[in-house]
Design brief:
It contains five helices and no strands. By secondary structure, the protein is mostly helical. Helix 2 packs antiparallel against helix 3 and helix 2 runs antiparallel to helix 5.
Length: 128
């Protein structure tokens, strides 16, 4: 009986420890996009739109790469695809506006804020 109790405790402790040692799956393309989004959006919050102008093409490139990437285990790729499509579209609009130089800083701020909001919508939907 003592051995059975010890075995039960060992199994229970092992089961409880699994989440501690489990590696959270990373979606590299999401992290790559976020790296550019963070250095682009946060200055825009303070009315510094130079990073938007500088990083618009890179933001679009990383959004497209993320859209093409397979979702790793632990992520719901099906739920995120329609929203990723919106993100790519928004990044295209930003990039085109920067290239054409036909939007005011206030308009660019609205556009990058929309892209940032879409990004966070994806983050909410992507976990299974």
């Amino acid at each position: 009986m003592k051995k059975l109790k010890t075995l039960f405790i060992m199994i229970l402790l092992t089961w409880l420890a699994l989440p501690v040692f489990a590696q959270e799956a990373k979606w590299i393309e999401m992290e790559n996009f976020h790296a550019v989004m963070s250095i682009t959006f946060h200055p825009a919050e303070e009315d510094n739109l130079e990073p938007v102008k500088k990083n618009a093409a890179e933001l679009l490139s990383r959004a497209k790469a993320w859209q093409k990437a397979d979702a790793p285990a632990g992520y719901n790729g099906t739920a995120t695809q329609p929203v990723l499509k919106q993100l790519v579209k928004q990044c295209k609009l930003i990039n085109a506006a920067v290239k054409k130089n036909n939007k005011s800083d206030a308009e660019l701020k609205i556009m990058i804020t929309r892209a940032h909001d879409i990004f966070h919508e994806i983050k909410e939907k992507c976990r299974k």
